[in-house]
Amino acid sequence: MADGNPLSDLTFLGSTGRLARFVGRPIHRFVAVEAAGGVLMLIATLAALVWVNSPWQDSYIDFWHTEVSFSVGDYHFEHDLEHVVQDGLMAVFFFVVGLEIKRELVNGQLRDPRFAALPAVAALGGMVVPAAVYLAFTAGGPGQDGWGIPMATDIAFAIGVLSLLGDRIPRQMKVFLLTLAIVDDIGAILVIAIFYTSDLSGNWLLTAGVLWAAVFVLRRLHVWYLPLYLVVGVAFWLAVLESGIHATIAGVILGFMTPAKPLQSEDEARRWAQWLQDKKEVRLLDVRRAGFHIRESQPVSQRIEELLHPITSYIIIPVFALSAAGVELSNDVISDAATSPVTLGVVLGLVVGKTVGISAFSWIAARLGLVSIPASMTGVHMVGLAMVAGIGFTVSLFISNLAFDSPHVGDEAKIGILVGSLIAAVAGLVILSRTETPHGASDKT
């Protein structure tokens, strides 16, 4: 995640060497692009599809079913590699999602009801209608538990599609889609927590509650020693995992609990910087003291998000896609998927359900005077944005893994996710690229 600062010539990337100029800095610029994570996720998805449909198919299955185990006292942890990714690494991803939502609630678009109302209403339609479309195909059948699959919007892919259109897309439309996707994430988190939870363990829930209280107390005491939070946080995640609630919820809860306001103002930070500059003799202790106060003018949540965002975007999500997107595309599987209620429900839920739900709920809310739709997002513009919001990938694949015990039904759902997301991306891109922004439409947020 780029911060826009010039690279220091004391570092490799800031040096004048050929390797830095022709390899290092181009890679640095690539990962600075918001869509880069989506590109890596797409590459990982294609790699999974090629791997599972190659002569080495068995190695794909064997690799992700490799057992990972360890013991601490009487406690014994034993899961395969696929579940380690799904329950462990994805908890870090949802922790970052929690941080992003907390930031938006405290300092961003969701803080102001005037700005949040339209994307919130649109997101509601984009969750309810796709779920209803899916259930229309699968109610009473073996795939009905997957109704949460078409509800999600993949932020990285959706914003990546808009970025392909450059300046032709007003910032107002990008902010709307980003906020809608964040509200979508909140809905997906609630769906996972409430509807995709196994049998609960009272003892482990109590342990998780005690650890949550410990984090709360540490915050109230203004203890900012991050390694301590790391230890307590891992223990909290483990307790949630064993309690029966999906472990990714632990990440979201910890993200919500992370302070999103700085300990002190920027003016106070500048005073400390001036204090350090005015000292005739600067000691290492003085630098550390001033550094702490300057650093605390930036919220803890923002610092952690900047640290973890590249890890989740460029490592965790591609690894998850590699583990989740491996679907056998034999003639029989494709033939079954073409007539499967699950596949059809997912595809139409993402493409039609999202488009109709977001557009209709926004239009109805505007007619009732509950929201105001900017000129840059009226008519076909809203339809194009709603279509792009039908790109459901990361969370959709995640929910499909939770919803089905049958690998066959799960594969049908994943094929639906891949096809539906591709149709939504291409159709949304075509609609928005052929639509002119209304003259005089404001680009303000």
Describe the protein's architecture and organization.
It is a single chain. The chain contains 18 helices and 2 strands. By secondary structure, it is mainly α. Strands 1-2 form a two-stranded antiparallel ribbon. Helix 13 crosses helix 17 and helix 14 packs across helix 18. It starts with 17 loop residues before the first helix and ends in a 12-residue tail after the last helix.
Gap between N and C termini, in Å?
A: 23 Å
Annotation, overall tally of beta strands: 2
| Overall morphology | globular
Strands of the largest sheet, in order across it? 1-2
Radius of gyration: 23 Å
Uncertain spans, ≥5 residues at pLDDT below 50? Answer: 439-445
Q: What is the helix/strand order?
A: HHHEEHHHHHHHHHHHHHHH
- pLDDT average, as an integer? 81
Summarize the biggest pleated sheet: 2 strands, antiparallel
Helix content: 55-70%
Total number of helices: 18
Q: How large is the share of residues in beta strands?
A: under 5%
Derived structural class:
mainly alpha
